[in-house]
């Protein structure tokens, strides 16, 4: 199996400061501790690739989205939830597509 951690340039930060939130339960990857979801688990992958669109979003927007998502009520489900990290855009749009394809496969 290919080491997909090489595609991720940054990672979220676990926030367990508020109980019963996604931030308390989510499994957040890091460069030194990269774990993969198993069947029926849920994975978040952030891909800031905007070269073929009119959107402009910066890194702070992704972190704001993460923080707000982590603050939501966790619910009562049995699947694990992973934040795999942010795939850094490649040298070309096609490079980013290939990285995302490898990660999802």
Explain what you see.
Strands 1, 2, 3 and 4 form a four-stranded mixed sheet that branches. This protein has helices at 22-25, 59-70, 93-104; strands at residues 8-10, 27-28, 42-46, 81-87. It is of the alpha/beta class and 105 residues long. The mean pLDDT is 87. Helix 2 (59-70) links the parallel strand 3 (42-46) and strand 4. The chain is globular and about 40 Å long. The chain contains three helices and four strands.
What labels describe this entry?
single chain, 105 residues
The low-confidence runs, each spanning 5 or more residues with pLDDT under 50, are none
Given the C-alpha coordinates, what overall shape results? globular
Measured between the Cα atoms of the first and last residue, the distance is 10 Å
Average pLDDT rating: 87
Profile the largest sheet.
4 strands, mixed
Task: Spell the H/E element sequence.
Answer: EHEEHEH
Derived from helix and strand composition plus strand pairing, the structural class reads alpha/beta
Cα-based radius of gyration, to the nearest Å:
14 Å
Classify the beta-strand content into a percent band: 15-25%
Number of strands: 4
Number of helices in the DSSP assignment: 3
How much helicity do the residues have? Answer: 25-40%
């Amino acid at each position: 199996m290919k080491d997909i951690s090489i595609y991720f340039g940054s990672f979220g930060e676990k926030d367990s400061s508020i109980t019963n939130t996604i931030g308390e339960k989510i499994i957040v990857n890091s460069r030194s501790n990269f774990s993969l979801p198993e069947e029926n688990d849920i994975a978040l992958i952030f891909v800031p690739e905007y070269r073929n669109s009119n959107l402009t979003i910066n890194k702070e927007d992704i972190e704001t989205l993460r923080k707000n998502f982590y603050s939501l009520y966790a619910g009562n489900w049995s699947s694990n939830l992973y934040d795999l990290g942010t795939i850094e855009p490649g040298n070309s749009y096609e490079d980013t597509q290939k990285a995302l394809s490898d990660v999802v496969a």
